[in-house]
Each structure stands twice: as structure tokens, then as C-alpha cells.
């Protein structure tokens, strides 16, 4: 084990003068040879928790990672820091793999990333046996450890076999890490990876720099463009859609409106996916429109927004996806629009799948928790953290409910009308027809089924169509109504509707704000108002000069700009204006290797201004 203090290595290699949160305790525990389970939010500094011990301990650190993109990103960043790092995965040809294997055997490498499939190959395990006998294995890091859970959102069956590390290398410390795991998932990680003796480090799941907003769906495209135009005219971001078709249509529509948008889903040719991902990582201001196939392991720190045009499947999925925004701790937005159709289609998808009933029940519970979050009138940060077993005082001033408190109303009578209409029409019609009945519209469908003769026909004229739509959405989200798959999405009463119909229970709903018409903004106007995401520096020529230099160096090195320096480091350079390499070395994120490689270049930019 190295005699160099962890804090010195932290500064010299990574450019940080202090640890964050529980990083120091984790680093010291693993460096001393202990096993650990680390739960830390995206952007909280998980990678450092295994990278630093790998440098402080004798031998090579083996990192199990599920995604090729993540490996490449991490290795690029480590090489910039002067760390001898490499990865082994299917993207390499035989000659490359042989060369890295030879470096491993010679003890030349400090950190190696490997996919679980490769690690589990008998030939690779035999190679690890030889390495342990020779240069030694510093540690095993199991990243994205939630992949071991069958109830998780990124289940990978190969992860279940990683107990071989404990059985075959009992004296090598293991550190399992994840950004999202509720209590059941956490227990399953411990059980499946044989980490019963491991020390657990659970950091706060709060991401105070992210502003959460959920808006009622009207014209989703116009709402999205209004959001982008007002807050993210030149920013990198991710837009999630449920279907491949919607991904492609949304990306095409955004491009036609002047946005630099790219599609990403599993149905695209691999070369197109890789090219689009590369552009997103290496260029500024690119928007990725994607299914959930995109995102896990994406290290781009300056993603300024994540938008959802469709409802995710669970709170874990929502937290993981929105957590890809603002990894640099600078302000970021999590914006979602959803409506009744999202609730019905998601429940229909869960119920019609081939999964065992036990799994369906768990997935329904997870979806219900997310619906509760969407319809909540309290602090979003508080609601989100409560799901993960953490308390929050509320009043975050970083969510829609805190910034514009939501009114509630006694919707008991309206709910009885809505539920009664479902019952009277036979529990097999969709919300559009039900509202037509309540409003007393004489449509051909109402005539066809003789619904104009029902007692509920025309009794709901006291509310508008959009208000009834809100009532039905919230009744479905609240579990009073269920979608009937066999009736093609028709609504039927749930057990919890009976006390309401009998007058034994009250129903209070959130008062939706009427969605106003959205003015279209021209490309020229949007361009003139384009912001860089940080209003205080948007018009500063020096800020743009620093970014231009970073992009120039990134292209020379063949790496994404943020691998040179994060935006937060550039902002500190802008504000501190160091006049020498010594002063530059005090900037957060400027380690020795980067100081030697880039210090003079950025000092020249400062001198020229």
C-alpha cells in the first residue's frame, strides 16, 4: 500500500483540495482492505471512491462496468489525469486486446475497466489468478451495482454471477456502487454479491442543483419548445420518449425547428447510435432524443436539462434519468409533461407483459409511487427523497410546487360523478366518451349506445372539458380507476372507488393551472436570445474564449471538452483569473498532469484579455 496520504493524491492527480461527503471515509476504508457498498447520487463523485484506492493500493484496480461508452469515457478522463488506465471490451480488435493484456501482466496498468461478460470468462479469471500472484489486484469495483436486482430498472443477469470474485479472490477488497437503490434493491445487492460483511455508505440522494417540474400535458411539442426556448436555447440536454417512433419523430421535428437534435434507440443501426452518442459527448449544445436505451454511464457533466415527454416506469428510473442533468453541480432542470394517456398506456404495458404476476405487482407499486410524485402538491425534493427512505425539510425553492404553491379543491362530488359515469356506461369506455356523457354532448357514439338516457348524461356541465380530464387523470393516478386491457383502455372501477361512491370518503385533488396558448418563437428570435446556461457569464467574451480554447484542445486530444476541464473549472478560472501556474494549480479540477498539459494554454487566453 502507498505511503502517500489520500489527500495529497486527491490534489496532485484529481486537482481537488478536499473530499466531498463520505468520500474520505470510503476511500480510507477500501484502501485499508475493507469491502463497501456505496450509494451515492449521480454526480456525487462515486468514481473517485474506487479510483483513488486503486492508486493507493498495490496492484491493478479491476472495474466491472456494464457499458462500453462508460468505459471509454472514464479511461479518457483518467489518461488526462496521468493515470495508466485501459479497458477491455468487444469494441477492440484482437491486437488491441492482446496489447492491453500484456500490459496487465507486466503490472504496467493501474486501473482496467472490463465488462461483466468478459470478466466471467474462464480465460480471464485465470489471467486474474496470475496477476494476483504477480503484480497483485488492488481491488474489484462493481459499478452500477443495481444491475444485479431483478426488480431494478437495468437488470443484467451476468451481474448475479459476480459472486465468483468473493469466492475466488477472498482477500481482494470489493466495492459495489450505485446511484439508485431503494431498500429492497439494496438488500438484494448485498445478498446477490455476498456483501453481508461490507460496510454500507449511503449518501444523501438529494440533488439540490436540479429544479424539478411536472406540467399538465396539452400540446407536448409546443410545451417542450417553449421550455427549451426560455431556458436552454444553446444547452446540451436529453429528451426521453417511450417509443422508438416518437423518438425519431420528435428529433426530426426539433431539427425542423432549428435545434441540433439527434435520435437514439435500440432499433437504430449500431454505427448510427455510436455516431450520435459521440456527437452528443464531444460537441456543445447537442440534444439527444432517446428511449431509456440511452444514458446509463454517460459521464457528460454539463447536461443542463433532462425532459420527459412520456412517463417513466418507476421512481428509480425517473431519478436515474433526471440525475444525468447537472453532474457538475451547476443549475439544471428536470422537466416532465404527462397526462391521462400516459397513465393508461403505462399501466396497460405493465399488465399485458409476460412477466410473472409477482414482478408485475412490484412494477405496479413502483409506477404508483411515481404517479404520486407527479400529482403531489408538496415539495418535489421532499417527495422524491421520502421514496428512498430519506427526510427533507421541504420548501426547496427548486421545484414547481415550492416556487408556485399548488391549490387543492374538494373534488368529492365531481369524483362521484366521474366514477358513477364509468359505472353507468358499463366500465368499458375511454375518458373522451365519458366526458362527452358528463357534458351532455349528443355525439353519434352517445346515440349509438343510448347513453343520452343515462342519469349521468349532462350532470357535469359545471366543469369544463379540461377540468374533467384533470379529474379523470388524477382518479386513475390515485388508484380509483383502472384501465381495462381487454376493453382497449376503457376505464373500470377499482376497489378504492366504492367508499367514494357510497359517500364514505372524500377526494381532494390538485387544482391544475389552465394551460395557456404558447407563442411560437422564430429561429432568428431564438438565436438572438440564445443563452449559454449561466446568465452571469453569457455575454462575457473571456468565458467564450476559455470555452473555445477547451474545444480546440479537446479536438487535438480526440476527447470530449469536459474531459479537458468541466464547466465548473472554467467558471473558477474565469472568476479567479490565475496569473501563474502556481495560482492555476489551486483551481478545483486542475491536477498536476492537466496543469502541465494545459496550464500555459489557458494562461495565454487570460493574458490576451
TrEMBL record:
Record-listed E.C. numbers: 5.6.2.4
Top EC category: isomerase
Protein name in the entry: DNA helicase RecQ
Residue ranges of every copy of the Helicase ATP-binding domain listed in the record: 27-199
Keywords of this entry: ATP-binding, DNA damage, DNA recombination, DNA repair, DNA-binding, Helicase, Hydrolase, Isomerase, Metal-binding, Nucleotide-binding, Zinc
Family: Belongs to the helicase family. RecQ subfamily.
NCBIfam families: recQ, recQ_fam
Domain HRDC, first and last residues per copy: 536-609
Domain of life from the UniProt record: Bacteria
Catalytic activity: Couples ATP hydrolysis with the unwinding of duplex DNA by translocating in the 3'-5' direction
Organism: Methylotenera versatilis (strain 301)
InterPro entries, alphabetized: DEAD/DEAH_box_helicase_dom (IPR011545), DNA_helicase_ATP-dep_RecQ (IPR004589), DNA_helicase_ATP-dep_RecQ_bac (IPR006293), Helicase_ATP-bd (IPR014001), Helicase_C-like (IPR001650), HRDC-like_sf (IPR010997), HRDC_dom (IPR002121), HRDC_dom_sf (IPR044876)
Cofactor: Mg(2+); Zn(2+)
One Gene Ontology term, aspect cellular component: cytoplasm
CDD domains listed in its UniProt record: DEXHc_RecQ, SF2_C_RecQ
Helicase C-terminal domain segment(s): 223-371
Upper classification of the organism: Bacteria, Pseudomonadati, Pseudomonadota, Betaproteobacteria, Nitrosomonadales
GO molecular function: 3'-5' DNA helicase activity; ATP binding; DNA binding; four-way junction helicase activity; hydrolase activity; metal ion binding
Pfam family of the protein (one): RecQ_Zn_bind
GO BP terms, alphabetized: DNA recombination; DNA repair; DNA replication; SOS response
Keyword RNA-binding applies: no
Amino acid at each position: 500500500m502507498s505511503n502517500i496520504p489520500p489527500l495529497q493524491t486527491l490534489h496532485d492527480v484529481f486537482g481537488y483540495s478536499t473530499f466531498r461527503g463520505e468520500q474520505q471515509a470510503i476511500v480510507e476504508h477500501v484502501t485499508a482492505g475493507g469491502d463497501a457498498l456505496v450509494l451515492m447520487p449521480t454526480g456525487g463523485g462515486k468514481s473517485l471512491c474506487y479510483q483513488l484506492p486503486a492508486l493507493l493500493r498495490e496492484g491493478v484496480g479491476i472495474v466491472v462496468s456494464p457499458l462500453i461508452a462508460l468505459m471509454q469515457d472514464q479511461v479518457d478522463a483518467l489518461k488526462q489525469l496521468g493515470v495508466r488506465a485501459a479497458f477491455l471490451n468487444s469494441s477492440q480488435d484482437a491486437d488491441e486486446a492482446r496489447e492491453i493484456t500484456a500490459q496487465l501482466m507486466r503490472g504496467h496498468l493501474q486501473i482496467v475497466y472490463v465488462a461483466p461478460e468478459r470478466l466471467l470468462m474462464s480465460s480471464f479469471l485465470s489471467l486474474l489468478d496470475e496477476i494476483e500472484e504477480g503484480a497483485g489486484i488492488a481491488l474489484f469495483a462493481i459499478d452500477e451495482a443495481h444491475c444485479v436486482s431483478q426488480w431494478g430498472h437495468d437488470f443484467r443477469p451476468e451481474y448475479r454471477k459476480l459472486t465468483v470474485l468473493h469466492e475466488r479472490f477472498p482477500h481482494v477488497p470489493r466495492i459495489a456502487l450505485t446511484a439508485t437503490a431503494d431498500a429492497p434493491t439494496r438488500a438484494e445487492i448485498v445478498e446477490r454479491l455476498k456483501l453481508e460483511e461490507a460496510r454500507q455508505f449511503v449518501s444523501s440522494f438529494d440533488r439540490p442543483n436540479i429544479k424539478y417540474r411536472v406540467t399538465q400535458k396539452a400540446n407536448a411539442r409546443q410545451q417542450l419548445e417553449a421550455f427549451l426556448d426560455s431556458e436552454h436555447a444553446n444547452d446540451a440536454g436529453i429528451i426521453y420518449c417511450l417509443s422508438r417512433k416518437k423518438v425519431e419523430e420528435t428529433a426530426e421535428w426539433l431539427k425542423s425547428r432549428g435545434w441540433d437534435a439527434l435520435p437514439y434507440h435500440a432499433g437504430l443501426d449500431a454505427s448510427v447510435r455510436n455516431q450520435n452518442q459521440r456527437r452528443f459527448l464531444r460537441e456543445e449544445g447537442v440534444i439527444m432524443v432517446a428511449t431509456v436505451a440511452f444514458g446509463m454511464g454517460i459521464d457528460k457533466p454539463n447536461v443542463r436539462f433532462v425532459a420527459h415527454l412520456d412517463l417513466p416506469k418507476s421512481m428509480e428510473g425517473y431519478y436515474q434519468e433526471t440525475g444525468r442533468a447537472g453532474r457538475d453541480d451547476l443549475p439544471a432542470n428536470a422537466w416532465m409533461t404527462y397526462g391521462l394517456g400516459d397513465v393508461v398506456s403505462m399501466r396497460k404495458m405493465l399488465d399485458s407483459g409476460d412477466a410473472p404476476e409477482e414482478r408485475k405487482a412490484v412494477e405496479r407499486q413502483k409506477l404508483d409511487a411515481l404517479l404520486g410524485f407527479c400529482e403531489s402538491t408538496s415539495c418535489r425534493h421532499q417527495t422524491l427523497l421520502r421514496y428512498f427512505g430519506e427526510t427533507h425539510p421541504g420548501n426547496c425553492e427548486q421545484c414547481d410546487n415550492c416556487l408556485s404553491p399548488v391549490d387543492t379543491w374538494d373534488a368529492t362530488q365531481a369524483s362521484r360523478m366521474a366514477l358513477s359515469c364509468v359505472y353507468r356506461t358499463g366500465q368499458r369506455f375511454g375518458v373522451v366518451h365519458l366526458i362527452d356523457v358528463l357534458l351532455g354532448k349528443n355525439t353519434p357514439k352517445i346515440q349509438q349506445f343510448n347513453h343520452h338516457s343515462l342519469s349521468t348524461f349532462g350532470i357535469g356541465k359545471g366543469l369544463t372539458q379540461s377540468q374533467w380530464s384533470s379529474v379523470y387523470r388524477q382518479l386513475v393516478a390515485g388508484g380509483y380507476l383502472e384501465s381495462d386491457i381487454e376493453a382497449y383502455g376503457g376505464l373500470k372501477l377499482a376497489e378504492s372507488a366504492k367508499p367514494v361512491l357510497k359517500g364514505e370518503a372524500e377526494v381532494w385533488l390538485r387544482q391544475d393551472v389552465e394551460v395557456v396558448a404558447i407563442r411560437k418563437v422564430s429561429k432568428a428570435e431564438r438565436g438572438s436570445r440564445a443563452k449559454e446556461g449561466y446568465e452571469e457569464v453569457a455575454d462575457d467574451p473571456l468565458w467564450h474564449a476559455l470555452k473555445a480554447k477547451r474545444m480546440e484542445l479537446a479536438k487535438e486530444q480526440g476527447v470530449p471538452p469536459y474531459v479537458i476541464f468541466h464547466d465548473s473549472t472554467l467558471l473558477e478560472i474565469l472568476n479567479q483569473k490565475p496569473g501563474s501556474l502556481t495560482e492555476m494549480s489551486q483551481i478545483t479540477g486542475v491536477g498536476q498532469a492537466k496543469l502541465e498539459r494545459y496550464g500555459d494554454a489557458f494562461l495565454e487566453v487570460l493574458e490576451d484579455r
